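Hi P.,

Sorry for the delay on this. The queue was packed all week, but I finally got your sequence through. Input first:
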Amino acid sequence: MTEIGSWRARATDGIEQQVAREEAIHLAKSVAAAETRPRQSKAQLADLSEQLAPGLQAQPGWGPVTTGIILTDRPGLRLNDY
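Then the structure:
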């Protein structure tokens, strides 16, 4: 993805190649951004969960997502309502 994202237009490209290259670059950059965002969100959730319930994530099986669900659970709300 990184290699495709760094492609540049060439003077010898026809219109079809130009459009295909631009689309490939756009898609490669979109994929790279889409891969980064979930990691950032999980890190933010881990930080917030640690602030609200220090040490809870240290328990076996308690990661940031599980801790976040527990901390935001409300009476009468089922897990599949999320």
